[in-house]
Amino acid sequence: MKEFINKNCFITGAASGIGRSFALALANEGMKLFISDVNTEGLEQVKKEIEQKGIIVHSIKCDVSKLSDIENAAKAFYSKLGDVDLLINNAGIGRAVNLANMNLENWKKVVDVNLWSVIYSMKVFLPRMLERKSGHIVNVASGAGLFGSSEPPSYITTKFAVVGLSEALFSRLKPLGINVSVITPALIRTNVFHSGLKNMEYDPKMLKDIGKEKLDEIYGSAMTNLMNSAMSPDVAVRKYIRQIKKDQLYIFDSQQIKHIVALKGKNMKEYEEFLLNYQEMQANSMKEHFQQYGINIEDYW
């Protein structure tokens, strides 16, 4: 998709983070927008900012884990704007997982929001794209969809799936006139994992000894420290848009992620060592953070 002006775009998860930055940046490109999120307050704020630019924008509350919500959003989109030129499946969540005592409801929620939402979106929007033989689908995955990082296993699982789905769609839809891209963000300043803290799966012994309030404080401050070094979503989205205009399948914001993927293809033994070392580095970082609160986290490993 080389030209955006006067084209129609639908975005999920547009109230904050990458989705918000996409909405504002594409408004500057002259696109007509339909934005959605479960956070209606944040969504309306983004809508107001876009309206101030004199751009056509509509909004709708949409829980992407529900097919009916996406169907309703699509009906509203078609009635207001017509066909979809750019479809951005951005909505996502992250919830920590305790592997020794897994909460399957947390797993299910992450899969529903991060993966099923993309499948639902394909079911609802793709038929009309196929009829027109045009359009561009952008799925927001993660760098965690390319290597087994330190993010929660449920999050990694869904992001790997979105990457695989995007590749499969690319090879099938490109010959039919429909482009597919998958974004694999590195560390971006969003509230994905901050929001997931309320559903944090703590080790039972840790929970008993330290208490949920203190643990929330410790993990919350660790997340804040991490986000302080993260890339702004506005900066990231500018990178993404340049690559969308080139019709790239894989869209990156970090050379480091590219190097990890290259290592994976070049030397599997070195890649395995990298995974172990990366996990150890992250564990040591968390260990040092807990020590600031006088807690030896190794007592709970």
Uncertain residue segments? none
Give the DSSP E fraction (strand runs of 2 or more residues).
Answer: 5-15%
Quick one: overall form?
A: globular
From N to C, what is the helix and strand string?
EHEHEHEHEHEHHHHEHH
**Number of helices, counting only DSSP H or I runs of 4 residues or more:** 11
Q: The biggest beta sheet, please? A: 7 strands, parallel
Q: Do you know the CATH architecture? A: 3-Layer(aba) Sandwich
Query: Percentage of helical residues?
Result: 40-55%
CATH structural class = Alpha Beta
Keywords:
Rossmann fold, globular, seven-stranded parallel sheet, 301 residues, alpha/beta, 7 strands
Task: Write up this protein.
The chain has helices spanning 17-28, 40-51, 67-80, 104-132, 153-173, 192-196, 204-210, 212-228, 233-244, 255-266, 268-291, and strands at residues 8-11, 32-37, 57-61, 86-89, 136-140, 179-183, 250-251. Helices cover 55% and strands 10% of the residues. The model has no long low-confidence stretch (mean pLDDT 93). Strand 5, helix 5 (153-173) and strand 6 form a beta-alpha-beta unit. The chain has one domain: NAD(P)-binding Rossmann-like Domain (Rossmann fold). The N and C termini lie far apart (49 Å). Strands 3-2-1-4-5-6-7 form a seven-stranded parallel sheet, with helices on both faces. It has 301 residues and is α/β, with parallel strands linked by helices. The protein has eleven helices and seven strands.
Outline the secondary-structure elements.
Layout (H helix, E strand, L loop, with lengths): L7 E4 L5 H12 L3 E6 L2 H12 L5 E5 L5 H14 L5 E4 L14 H29 L3 E5 L12 H21 L5 E5 L8 H5 L7 H7 L1 H17 L4 H12 L5 E2 L3 H12 L1 H24 L10
Parallel strand pairs: 1-2, 1-4, 2-3, 4-5, 5-6, 6-7
